[in-house]
Write a structure and sequence with these properties.
mainly alpha, two-stranded antiparallel sheet, 2 strands
């Protein structure tokens, strides 16, 4: 398939957008609903529990279930499965696609169930060991982590199916319901935070919550409810695309073998990613109370622009890149990656700069932490924001390799990331606290993006021109951030109002410097 751009017409924006651009905007639009909901949930939780040991326990308890989810049915399997499903659909049709999907889903659920039982049995050493999740917590807090982690395994079993449904629908170029699923997942968690966790008639910012008083256990029940909703909302998509489930469980199917071959390196890649968060909490548990929670919130805030911009674009781009590869259209493949990298650089560099300057008043107003808690979250967020561009480029670069059904470069790059993170984290977490851990994370992901870029540029030299955007993006980012800072210093109005005015002015100035890339977005 050639890389011809769609003709400009007067029949509306929808026809002027490429399929990837339409899908990107659709996904980004739903993510734009999901992320504020996620932030609202975190605000509810933060205002109820504060930066302290109870919320530290809840956040630490999520780590291992999240690791298993990512390995089995999240990024590891989905990035291996989608290209193979797309190829099967292109060459053999939809019935063959669903047969392959059933084989993989049955296998994934069985493996997940076995691992969940093992984690439940060995939860105590997993948490208490010096090499475990939370060796620095007190015994009482460790007990709470163990309880919550075991409960979280129920949600893991649901996600072992739901995550694969997402992959199956995306392989069919169906993006709406998979992007809607995180929204209903958040709604389930918000229900837990509103109605299950707080005590009866608990008040937050004038809002009376008719809670059941289950505390952090109520938050986990909300996670379970959200997981069920995440699966349920996607089921109509399976019906629409003619899904037929097969009860067979085999690894002899050629497609299953191909998925497992791709998944092997990806398992290590995602495992290294999740291991970083286990190590992060391990180091954070050795710092004063609140460090784990500050890192959790800092990561959440950084992920807001990363998800809206980079994850949306990368998700929409993967099936198209897989099609280019299946049709041996290397020119279209390289051109798509190069344009995507330029767009991401143009959008994420200013976003990081603007958010770094404005984050403190927003954290203070949203979460209601005391001055020390606000400062801790602000520092962690700024540390994570230094790696935003690297995170964003990985979303496209890693998918470019998986579209080619080559999982080794992402594995090598992730291992380089892990080594850098471990070395920097060990050196920085004592003198710099949570900031040192966040900086180590950013350094590791920037190195990973650099390794992927260098490897891909050997076979797709066209992507080197994506750096042409950097000078303009840097100037725009600096001027935009300067406007936000000036607004906070000099405008005679409240801190939040000054922040909003500064962000609006800074955003417009930054956008003016990268206007060509903004226009390019619709032609991806």
């Amino acid at each position: 398939m050639s890389d011809a751009r769609p003709r400009e017409t007067s029949s509306g924006l929808g026809r002027r957008l490429s399929p990837v651009a339409r899908a990107s905007f659709l996904i980004a639009g739903l993510f734009a609903i999901d992320k504020p909901l996620d932030l609202f949930r975190q605000i509810l939780i933060g205002r109820q529990f504060g930066v302290g040991p109870e919320l530290d326990a809840f956040n630490a308890a999520n780590n291992l279930p999240d690791l298993l989810r990512a390995l089995i049915t999240g990024g590891a399997l989905s990035l291996a499965l989608i290209p193979v499903l797309s190829e099967t659909l292109e060459r053999n049709g939809r019935p063959a696609l669903w047969q392959l999907f059933s084989h993989v889903a049955n296998l994934a659920f069985g493996v997940t169930a076995a691992l969940a039982v093992g984690v439940a049995i060995f939860a105590e050493p997993i948490v208490r060991s010096q090499w475990g999740i939370a060796p620095g917590f007190s015994p009482e807090v460790q007990d709470r982590v163990i309880e919550l982690m075991r409960l979280n395994l129920i949600a893991l079993l649901v996600f072992s199916v739901s995550g694969l449904v997402t992959s199956g629908l995306q392989a069919n170029q169906h993006f709406f319901l998979p992007a809607l699923a995180p929204i209903v997942y958040d709604l389930g968690q918000i229900g837990g935070a509103l109605f299950l966790a707080p005590p009866a008639d608990f008040e937050i910012a004038g809002l009376h919550l008719p809670g059941l008083g289950l505390g952090v256990h109520g938050l986990v029940y909300g996670v379970i409810a959200g997981a069920v909703l995440h699966l349920a909302v996607q089921l109509p998509g399976l019906v629409r695309h003619g899904f037929r489930w097969s009860a067979a469980l085999t690894i002899r199917h050629p497609g299953v073998r191909k998925v497992l071959t791709l998944m092997g390196p990806r398992l290590v890649t995602i495992g290294a990613f999740q291991l970083m968060f286990v190590v992060q909490d391990n180091l954070g548990s050795r710092l004063p109370s609140g460090a784990v929670t500050a890192l959790t919130y800092g990561w959440l805030i950084m992920q807001f622009p990363e998800t809206l911009i980079a994850t949306a674009l990368g998700t929409a781009l993967l099936p198209t890149l897989a099609e280019h590869f299946a049709r041996s259209d290397s020119s279209a493949f390289s051109s798509s990656v190069e344009r995507a990298l330029r767009v991401l650089l143009a959008l994420t560099l200013p976003a990081a700069a603007l958010l770094a300057v404005s984050v403190r008043p927003m954290v203070s107003a949203a979460f209601g932490f005391d001055e020390a808690g606000t400062a801790l979250v602000t520092l962690a967020t700024r540390g994570f924001l230094l790696g935003l561009v690297g995170h964003a480029w990985i979303e496209v670069l890693a998918r470019a390799f998986f579209a080619r059904q080559n999982a080794r470069p992402p594995l090598l790059a992730r291992l380089a990331n892990l080594v850098v993170f471990l070395m920097a984290g060990a050196a920085l977490f004592r003198p710099l606290g949570a900031l040192g851990i966040a900086l180590s994370n950013s350094l590791g992901f920037t190195v990973e993006a650099g390794v992927l870029f260098v490897i891909l540029a050997r076979t797709s030299p066209e992507i080197r021109s994506s750096w042409s955007t950097l000078p303009r993006a840097l100037v725009g980012s600096a001027l935009g951030a300067g406007l936000v800072y000036a607004a906070l210093l000099w405008l005679p109005m409240g801190e939040l109002a000054s922040t909003a005015v500064g962000l609006a002015a800074g955003g417009l100035v930054s956008a003016a410097f990268v206007l060509p890339e903004i226009k390019e977005l619709r032609r991806l």
